Amino acid sequence: MRNIRTTSNDVELVRQRREIIAKRALQLFLEKGYERTTMREIGNACGMTHGNLYNYVGSKEDIRHLILMRDIEGATKLEDFRRKLGNVSYTTVLGECMADFLRGMDRMTGPLLFFDREIYKFPREERRVALAAELAIVSFFEDLIREGIEAEEFKVCNPILLAHDILMYGHDWAVRRWFLKQHVTLEEYTKEHVRLVLELVTTKTN
């Protein structure tokens, strides 16, 4: 993780201030674009003076990194969610994990729109981190599907392709929610896509 400068020794205060800074800056980046947004504008949006903002971050690049790091824990959260499900069928686990993933992606709309627009401008290491986070999601679902195959509960020809499709269901909801919400709720979107995937993995001819 990037070493972000701060002048405060209060760890909790720094965490809270950086949460606010990342959230308000993201809104500005989406409205104006990353390059056109100034640190002064970010400070104003956070209710901070220009100087006070620099107590918690050293640059706009630091803020971009904060936004990235806030939103790369998807696979870890899915692992935690799966453990809480306990001893249930792979069909149940896959359906519940898909639903949890899609709920998480609904909360990721802002960051994903930002990443889609700006990732080509990110430094190589930050691009690597962002792409690795997506690959971790694919790996989580691929492993889950393979476990279901080994347990003879699923029949899937290409687990990694199906895992990637699940990732894209979430990505599509996040970046095209403006359109999809005119026709379906998140609950309806989730129910339909879970149904499609579960039908696919349990169909003998797939």
Overall description:
It is a single chain. By secondary structure, the protein is mainly alpha-helical. The protein folds into 2 domains: 11-69, Arc Repressor Mutant, subunit A, CATH 1.10.10.60; 71-201, Orthogonal Bundle (Tetracycline Repressor, domain 2). It has 10 helices and no strands. It has helices at 11-32, 39-45, 50-53, 60-70, 74-85, 90-107, 109-118, 124-150, 159-180, 186-201. The chain starts with 10 loop residues before the first helix and ends in a 5-residue tail after the last helix. The mean pLDDT is 91.
In short:
The chain has 206 residues and is an all-alpha fold. It has helices at 11-32, 39-45, 50-53, 60-70, 74-85, 90-107, 109-118, 124-150, 159-180, 186-201. The chain has two domains: 11-69, Homeodomain-like (Arc Repressor Mutant, subunit A, Orthogonal Bundle); 71-201, Tetracycline Repressor, domain 2.
Spell out the blueprint of helices and strands:
Elements: H1 11-32, H2 39-45, H3 50-53, H4 60-70, H5 74-85, H6 90-107, H7 109-118, H8 124-150, H9 159-180, H10 186-201
